[in-house]
Amino acid sequence: MRELEKIPIQRYQGFDPTEAGNHGLMCEMSVAELRERIELNKAKLAQEVEFKRDTNLAKKEREANNLMEDSDKIAQARIKRKQVADDKRN
User: Exposure of 86 by Cβ count < 10 A (0-12 exposed, 13-18 middle, 19+ buried)?
Assistant: First the structure.
């Protein structure tokens, strides 16, 4: 009996991810809450990146359209100048 009493009893509490650390800090949060916040921040960041990507693509398309319009105007102006020059020669 005495030998059995000498054997230390191991008291182990399982890890509960929903429980805060209870270290006395004001802004403690549990591991589960931390993981949830990380996922929310990742989703928010992905949404911001997608918005920026869409904005940049729209801006590039507008710039490409403006360049095409400018090149069309230049081509039309060249054609008109060529016609005027041909009319003057004839």
Answer: exposed
**Quick check: pTM over 0.70?**
no
Query: Using CA atoms, how far apart are residues 33 and 20, in angstroms rounded to an integer?
Result: 9
Amino acid at 8: P
Q: Answer for the pair 89, 82: CB distance below 8 angstroms, yes or no.
A: no
Q: Would the pLDDT of 12 be above 90?
A: no
Tokens representing 53 are: 């990507």
Identity at 13, one-letter amino acid code: Q
Residue-range domain boundaries for the chain: 63-90
Q: What token pair was written down for 60?
A: 């590039």
